[in-house]
Amino acid sequence: QVQLVESGGGVVQPGRSLRLSCAASGFTFSSYGMHWVRQAPGKGLEWVAVVSYAGDNKDYADSVKGRFTISRDNSKSTLYLQMNSLRTEDTATYYCAKDRSTSGNYWLDPWGQGTLVTVSS
Amino acid sequence: DIVLTQSPDSLAVSLGERATIDCKSSQIILYSPNNKNSLAWYQQKPGQPPKLLIYWASTRESGVPDRFSGGGSGTGFTLTISNLQAEDAAVYYCQQYYSSPRTFGQGTKLEIK
């Protein structure tokens, strides 16, 4: 079955960097767009970024544009989120999610269990 | 950006009754190639990731009980849960995938009386 497992979360100081990973299995990773979505503690869902199946098309929420970079390694079936210049408002559980399309323009299913990022001094 | 506004923010409904959650879009989200609305519904239970329920506004995902139904058109959409069960207690989100940035509604918390 499809499985998405995030890792790399933790506590980091403001201004520092962190890289999240999402290991995928159970499907042909290289055929689907992939997303990162975050959820601040006790809050709703916020879409963060998407990458197309080949990694050549990417898009970001304005709140992270210029600071975060989404990428993928299809040979390793792994999705990444490089987060630089972290702010306290980036504190959230970060989910990776598979898109139903190659381009990343459809709905998200399934989602990983998430990894918690806490930005605090 | 397309803003999705859900109502109500929370509701409590008795077992066996029907719950209705609305999602209003600030723009039309009709995908012309297939004449379907680019809207999905998700269910999130405490400590769990969101789970897809509905896509194209009214197409139920495989394995989702037929008690869950989606509808609407234009800028107004609805998630209806019939014959409420205890396990339906959760937060429900709508999401548009018509344009970037993809946006979610603020969520509706459903409690079972």
Quaternary organization? heterodimer
Series of secondary-structure elements of chain A, N-terminal to C-terminal: EEEEEEEEEEE
The helix count of chain A comes to: 0
Main β-sheet description of chain A: 7 strands, mixed
Q: Estimate percent helicity of chain B.
A: under 10%
Mean pLDDT across all amino acids of chain B: 97
Describe the largest sheet of chain B. Answer: 7 strands, mixed
**What would the principal axes of the Cα set say about the shape of chain B?**
globular
Number of helices of chain B: 0
What general outline of chain A do the C-alpha atoms trace?
globular
Biggest interface: chains and residue counts? A-B, 23 and 21 residues
Condensed summary:
The complex is a heterodimer of chains A (121) and B (113). Chain A is mostly beta strands and 121 residues long.
Helix/strand layout:
The complex is a heterodimer of chains A (121) and B (113).
Chain A: E1 3-7, E2 10-12, E3 18-25, E4 34-39, E5 45-51, E6 58-60, E7 68-73, E8 78-83, E9 92-99, E10 108-111, E11 115-119
Parallel strand pairs in A: 2-11
Antiparallel strand pairs in A: 1-3, 3-8, 4-5, 4-9, 5-6, 7-8, 9-10, 9-11
Chain B: E1 4-7, E2 10-13, E3 19-25, E4 30-31, E5 36-37, E6 39-44, E7 51-55, E8 59-60, E9 68-73, E10 76-81, E11 90-96, E12 103-104, E13 108-112
Parallel strand pairs in B: 2-13
Antiparallel strand pairs in B: 1-3, 3-10, 4-5, 6-7, 6-11, 7-8, 9-10, 11-12, 11-13
Structure description:
The complex is a heterodimer of chains A (121) and B (113). By secondary structure, chain A is mainly β. Chain A is 0% helix and 50% strand. In chain A, the strands form two sheets. In chain A, strands 2, 4, 5, 6, 9, 10 and 11 form a seven-stranded mixed β-sheet that branches. Chain A has a four-stranded antiparallel β-sheet with strand order 1-3-8-7, with no helix packed on it. In chain A, a hairpin with a 5-residue loop joins strand 4 and strand 5 (45-51). Chain A is globular and about 40 Å long. Chain B has 113 residues and is mainly beta. Helix content of chain B is 0%, strand content 51%. Chain B is globular and about 40 Å long. At the A-B interface, strand 5 and strand 10 of A face strand 6, strand 7 and strand 12 of B.
